[in-house]
Write a structure and sequence with these properties.
The protein has 293 residues and is of the alpha/beta class. The chain has 13 helices and nine strands. The chain has two domains: 160 residues, 3-Layer(aba) Sandwich (Rossmann fold); 123 residues, Orthogonal Bundle (N-(1-d-carboxylethyl)-l-norvaline Dehydrogenase, domain 2), CATH 1.10.1040.10.
Length: 293
């Protein structure tokens, strides 16, 4: 492989994504706040770096997969950040889910420094990251997208250049709006079935064969039935994404009346200390309220 790849952020999603790139033959340098995942990826053949700058100095393409906008800003532009180590012509790919407005600013700063940037947030959860089947929504130029496409092909299955810088993050905000609303709808449907004395598992089975069928009904509906809330995607991260949705919509003057209650429920879930559960744990709030009636 000609391109040397750096990967920063080896969490639930980042670690399997980096491992897939390693298996595909990309030389890789990695850095993360937590040592154990770094140890694991290094044991698989990567090189350890002590800072984002050191990752950038060793890489042609640097991928970041981080929790939130301030984290990305710090890793890119803080002390010993990626920007201070990028060579002219290098490429930064941010695969985090962050503010579209901030993303455009980051891309402009990197361009001024002689580097390119793509925003490429993903959907598909931990399983998609492990299987290399993520949906990848990309913002940037066609030329830079074409350069990154071989890496995206390793990590994902549905890869779309949505538009210019920030467009990938807009697409991800739309994704999280639909996902959050659908999880809440599935939770309400299964809770309604149970309250009526009907087998919720049979209701789910019936709905899967009709127009209400969806990936969320299939996967998260089963999680709800099994009360299996080990995170594929943590509720507190979906709350962060919900704030991005509402902030972006507010800036653009777009009403989101159907999503506002979902954001409120995610906030309540986090406030009750359940932020590290999977976002399908939204059903537990409905169960609490139903039991209190």
């Amino acid at each position: 492989m000609g391109e040397r790849v750096g990967f920063i952020g080896l969490g639930i999603m980042g670690k399997p994504m980096s491992l897939n790139l390693l298996r595909a033959g990309y030389p890789m340098t990695v850095h993360s706040r937590s040592a154990p995942p770094v140890d694991e990826v290094v044991a698989s053949g990567a090189t350890r770096a002590s800072s984002p700058r050191e990752v950038a100095e060793a890489s042609d393409i640097v991928i970041t997969m981080l929790p939130d906008t301030p984290d990305v800003e710090k890793v890119l532009f803080g002390d010993d950040g990626v920007a201070s180590g990028l060579a002219p012509g290098a490429l930064a790919i941010d695969m985090s889910t962050i503010s579209p407005i901030a993303t455009r600013g980051f891309a402009s700063q990197l361009s001024d420094a002689g580097a390119s940037m793509l925003d490429a947030p993903v959907s598909g959860g931990e399983k998609g990251a492990i299987d290399g089947t993520l949906s990848i929504m990309v913002g940037g130029t066609q030329e830079v997208f074409d350069r990154a496409k071989p890496l995206f092909d390793v990590m994902g299955g549905n890869i779309v250049l949505v538009g210019d810088s920030g467009a990938g993050q807009i697409a991800k905000a739309c994704n999280q709006l639909v996902v959050g609303g659908t999880i809440e709808a599935v939770a309400e449907a299964l809770t309604l079935a149970t309250a009526a004395g009907v087998d919720a598992a049979r209701v789910r089975e019936a709905l899967l064969g009709g127009f209400a069928g969806s990936k969320i009904l299939e996967v998260h509906g089963q999680r709800m039935l099994d009360e299996a809330f080990t995170p594929g995607f943590r509720a507190r991260l979906h709350l962060k994404d919900a704030h991005i949705v509402s902030d972006t919509a507010r800036e653009l003057g777009v009403p989101t009346p159907g999503f506002t209650p979902v954001e409120e429920e995610l906030q309540r879930l986090v406030d009750e200390g359940k932020g590290d559960l999977d976002h399908s744990a939204l059903i537990t709030l409905l169960q609490e309220d139903s039991a209190a009636e």
